[in-house]
Amino acid sequence: MLVCLPVGVGAVRVHAEGIRTGEARREDDVARVIVGMTSSLDGFVADQSGSASRLYPDLSALQGTTYMDAMIERTGAVLMGRRAFEMGDPDRYVGNYEFQTPIFVLTHRPPAVMPKQDERLTFTFVTDGVDSAVSRAAAAAGDKAVQVIGGASTVQQVLGAGLVDELHVDVMPVLLGAGLRLFPADSRLDGLRLEKIDLQEVGPRTSLRFRVTR
Ligand SMILES: NC(=O)c1ccc[n+]([C@@H]2O[C@H](COP(=O)([O-])OP(=O)(O)OC[C@H]3O[C@@H](n4cnc5c(N)ncnc54)[C@H](OP(=O)(O)O)[C@@H]3O)[C@@H](O)[C@H]2O)c1
Question: Which CATH number is associated with domain 29-213?
Answer without folding.
Answer: 3.40.430.10
